[in-house]
């Protein structure tokens, strides 16, 4: 650990009252540390071990506190932190990244806003290698703004809602952005911006009639954008039918055995029927 980083963290710890303070927790300390020590993904392995050793060395001071219900500074073990930061993209993340690279309207010059990018925005980091301008937005990031900027990512720490300014971006994307799904569609429709969303059911509004098992995003989002297109499990307004072959190319093998359970019964039935028809064609 750099001496200036160690001195800064020690000074920070010594000056803060250890209690229920949002400015004094694991995330804040790691973010402060990352500003000094992390400038690319290759720094992660060393940084995790170094930071964990640093917290352990402060254990006596940090944990011998009389504050009731004091927060756990060692929120993650070194092993858990390695897994969070170093594990490769999941199949779904990799698929999403490949689709975005293929459909971005201005290719590498597309100004992208990635909504709900995640505490550690792996997909954004991957995409930043292929685009000149990428901004990630979420309520909290584990890395500092300086660290993310060094990886070619601008970061915004706030909720995405209908008041978020998107005019400067060419393409709004979101991989399972939960509560932001409806607002992405609303805002992009208002400002006529292209969007591409991988859907999830975390914040799906309740159906108007209790027990409607077919209820899904395909019943909700067209109210905000009548031109929206669904291609399981994505929703978008870019490229229309021209996008479907690209999506199918990247998702076919991943979804052909069992469609994921996170959009809606109607679309699950459609994809299941599609797979069944393909199996019949292969047999004949």
Summarize the structure.
The protein has 284 residues and is α/β, with parallel strands linked by helices. The chain has helices at residues 3-15, 26-37, 44-57, 59-63, 78-86, 91-103, 122-127, 145-150, 181-191, 217-220, 244-255, 265-283, and strands at 111-115, 133-138, 154-157, 171-175, 195-198, 229-231, 234-236.
In CATH, what is the class of the largest domain?
Alpha Beta
Number of domains: 2
Structural class: alpha/beta
Major beta sheet, specifics? Answer: 7 strands, mixed
Question: Which sequence of strands runs across the widest sheet?
Answer: 3-2-1-4-5-7-6
Q: Nearest-angstrom radius of gyration?
A: 22 Å
Number of helices: 12
Average pLDDT confidence is: 82
Helix content: 40-55%
Which regions contain 5 or more consecutive residues with pLDDT less than 50?
Answer: 63-71
> How many DSSP E strands?
7
Strand content: 5-15%
Q: Please tell me the CATH architecture of the largest domain by its name.
A: 3-Layer(aba) Sandwich
Q: Tell me, what's the shape?
A: elongated
The CATH homologous superfamily name of the largest domain equals: NAD(P)-binding Rossmann-like Domain
CATH fold name of the largest domain, please?
Rossmann fold
Order of helices and strands: HHHHHHEHEHEEHEHEEHH
Distance between the termini: 64 Å
């Amino acid at each position: 650990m750099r001496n200036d980083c160690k001195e800064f963290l020690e000074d920070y710890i010594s000056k803060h009252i250890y209690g229920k303070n949002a400015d004094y927790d694991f995330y804040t300390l790691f973010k402060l540390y990352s500003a000094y020590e992390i400038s690319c993904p290759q720094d992660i392995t060393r940084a995790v071990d170094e930071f964990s050793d640093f917290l352990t060395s402060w254990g006596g001071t940090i944990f011998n506190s009389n504050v009731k219900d004091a927060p756990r500074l060692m929120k993650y073990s070194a092993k858990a932190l390695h897994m969070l930061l170093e594990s490769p993209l999941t199949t779904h993340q990799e698929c999403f990244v490949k689709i975005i690279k293929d459909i971005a309207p201005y290719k590498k010059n597309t100004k992208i806003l990635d909504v709900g990018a995640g505490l550690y925005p792996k997909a954004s980091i991957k995409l930043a290698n292929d685009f000149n301008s990428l901004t990630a937005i979420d309520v909290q990031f584990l890395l500092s703004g300086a660290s993310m900027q060094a990886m070619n990512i601008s970061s915004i720490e706030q909720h995405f809602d209908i008041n978020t300014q998107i005019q400067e971006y060419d393409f709004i994307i979101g991989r399972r952005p939960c509560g932001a799904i409806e607002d992405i569609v609303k805002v992009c429709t208002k400002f006529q911006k292209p969007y591409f969303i991988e859907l999830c059911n975390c914040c799906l509004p309740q159906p108007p009639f209790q027990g409607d098992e077919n209820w899904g995003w395909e019943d909700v989002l067209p109210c905000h954008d009548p031109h929206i297109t669904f291609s399981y499990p994505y929703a978008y307004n870019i490229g229309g039918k021209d996008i479907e072959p690209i999506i199918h190319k990247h998702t076919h093998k991943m979804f052909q055995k069992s469609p994921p359970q996170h959009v809606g019964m109607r679309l699950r039935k459609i994809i299941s029927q599609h797979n069944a028809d393909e199996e019949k064609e292969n047999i004949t």
